[in-house]
Each structure stands twice: as structure tokens, then as C-alpha cells.
Design goal:
The protein is an alpha/beta fold and 320 residues long. Helix content is 24%, strand content 28%. α1 packs parallel to α2 and α5 packs parallel to α6.
Length: 320
């Protein structure tokens, strides 16, 4: 039987932004509901070692870190709900959210932390070796490739910036692009082409990612030149896929302001969207940094802003 749930604060998404928002809202005695969505834990749930989240002297496992955040959120008073929202009505408060379970959620305020997914090449080896040498985040994982050889695939600013960042760690960086010119801006192009550690692999696509062993590890990539049709193999220790991200915002299309890439737009120095009482935090609105720690910080901001919004609007206590 379907049920109706009411809360002063509903958080959508269970990555670092969502859990942090819930922790702060719970500590403000707002009894938040956190709807975990399709992938509880977000992208960190499919990440192996996390070495750059503050508070841990040694690397921790991404799924473990997310489990700890979930436990902390529950401990301070968050109700975690296993459901996925399929439609929303943001025309009036309380906002109405409908779950795939058939349940309905009434929210005096809503914090959207649905994140963004990296675009992948869709190759068998890429999937098998994700987290074992295949990554979509150089600033997250580049440190693990100190003195080694890596490749980046892509041709835009993200790919150029990932390649340049990796030169701080790797001994050699290949940048694989399907065309003979980069799409990155002129400044990034100039820096990439002039860097002694970066070698371009033009007019080429990756046909698979190679690697085996116990534990499994990337050993190379299979390439095909689009001009000549020639195939080759390139020995590398890690592959960074930089072909873009897709924010999980389809649910809010036509309801919340977005930029041309589908990321939610918020006011400067704020998580507030164009609809009063709706806030956005983490990768769903951040296409620049995309780090767990920045997402967590924005989750904190979202909860504090939701608390202030409720105080100013004298929201009635939600029914139990």
C-alpha cells in the first residue's frame, strides 16, 4: 500500500552532498528524509581507494566511506528511504514528489543532490577495469600513477586539463583524440601541445582497454586509426576517460533553471535555485571541481540555507 511521507527537508541523492546535507539538517532538528535513489553512495560507491578526503591518514575505500556517511546521517536523526523519485511538482509548497515505489513525499524544502555521471566509452575492458586503472577523474586518482605512463581520451577542455594535471604525477601522458585538432580552447591547446610529457595520438579511437592479473590492472589500450584503419596497442598503466559528464537533472527539466549542459543553476555563493525553497548541491550543479569534499561542502550550504528559509517562512511543523 502506498504511503505519504511529510518532512520539512527532503534530500534527493546519497552521495557526499546528500549525506552532508542530511547530517546538517538533522542536527538542526529538522528530521530530514533522504531518498537514496538508484545508486546509493553516488560515484564513490564504485570508487576503490579514496586518498584525498580529509580526516583519514591512509586511503579508504569509497563504498566504506559512503557507508560511514550513511551511518552518521542516521545516527543524528535522518530517515533513509530506498526509493527513486520519478516525478516532481514544484509549483507550490509543500513540494510533491512521487516515488517509483508508489509513495508520495511532501517537502517544505527540497535539496537536490542527484549528482552527475561520467560518460564512458562503453568498452568491455573499460567496465571490467574501472577502479583498477580506469578512471574519470585525474584529480581524484592521478596521485596513484606517480612516475608511470597514462593515457587520456577526449579532445575538449576537460581532456586537456586532465592531461595537464596528470603531468604533475605521471612520467608520460598520451592524449588520444578521434580528430586531428583539439576542441579545447586555444590556451589549453597551446599548453598541451607544448608540454614535453604529453604526446598526442591523433585520429584514433580506443577499441578496448587491456589488462589482467590478480588483482586486475590496466596494461594497455587497443587503438584504431580512423584515417588509415590501422590497429595498434599502446602500453599504459592507467586510462582517464574525459569525454564529459551528464548531470542527473532530467527530472527537473522545465522546472528548475539549467545551463546548456543540463547542470542546475544557483545564485552566486548559494545553493538556492530559481524556485524558493529548492536548493541544489554537489555535482548536479558543479561542473568545475567535481570532488567529494566540495560536494560535501555544498551539501552543508544547502542544509543551512534550507534551515534559514524555513525560519524566515515560518514553516508549519510537518506531520509525523
Amino acid at each position: 500500500m502506498s504511503r505519504t511521507h511529510e518532512s520539512k527537508v527532503v534530500v534527493l541523492g546519497s552521495g557526499p552532498a546528500g549525506y552532508t546535507a542530511a547530517i546538517y539538517a538533522a542536527r538542526a532538528n529538522l528530521a530530514p528524509l533522504l531518498i537514496r535513489g538508484m545508486q546509493p553512495g553516488g560515484q564513490l560507491s564504485i570508487t576503490t581507494e579514496v586518498e584525498n578526503f580529509p580526516g583519514f591518514a591512509t586511503a579508504v575505500q569509497g563504498p566504506w566511506l559512503m557507508d560511514q556517511m550513511a551511518a552518521q546521517a542516521t545516527h543524528v536523526g535522518t530517515t533513509l528511504i530506498e526509493d527513486m523519485i520519478v516525478s516532481v511538482d514544484l509549483d507550490r509548497r509543500p513540494f510533491v514528489l512521487h516515488g517509483d515505489s508508489g509513495d508520495t513525499y511532501l517537502a517544505e524544502t527540497l535539496i537536490v543532490c542527484t549528482g552527475a555521471q561520467a560518460r564512458w566509452l562503453g568498452l568491455p575492458g573499460e567496465t571490467r577495469l574501472r577502479g583498477f586503472g580506469v578512471s574519470a577523474c585525474a584529480t581524484c586518482d592521478g596521485f596513484f600513477f606517480r612516475g608511470r605512463t597514462v593515457a587520456v581520451v577526449g579532445g575538449g577542455n576537460t581532456a586537456a586539463e586532465e592531461a595537464l594535471y596528470l603531468t604533475n604525477h605521471a612520467a608520460k601522458v598520451y592524449l588520444v583524440h578521434r580528430r586531428d585538432t583539439l576542441r579545447a580552447d586555444k590556451t589549453n591547446q597551446s599548453r598541451v601541445l607544448a608540454h614535453p610529457k604529453i604526446e598526442m595520438v591523433w585520429d584514433s579511437v580506443i577499441e578496448d582497454v587491456l589488462g589482467d592479473g590478480e588483482p586486475a590492472a590496466v596494461s594497455g589500450i587497443a587503438l584504431r586509426n580512423l584515417r588509415t584503419g590501422a590497429t595498434s596497442r599502446l602500453a599504459i598503466d592507467g586510462l582517464f576517460v574525459a569525454i564529459g559528464h551528464t548531470p542527473a537533472t532530467e527530472l527537473f527539466r522545465g522546472k528548475l533553471d539549467m545551463d546548456g549542459e543540463g547542470y542546475l543553476v544557483t545564485r552566486p555563493d548559494s545553493t538556492a535555485t530559481n524556485i524558493p525553497g529548492v536548493f541544489a548541491a554537489g555535482d548536479v550543479k558543479d561542473k568545475v571541481f567535481r570532488q567529494a569534499v566540495t560536494a560535501a561542502g555544498m551539501g552543508c550550504m544547502g542544509a543551512l540555507e534550507a534551515e534559514r528559509f524555513l525560519a524566515h517562512h515560518d514553516a508549519a511543523p510537518a506531520a509525523g
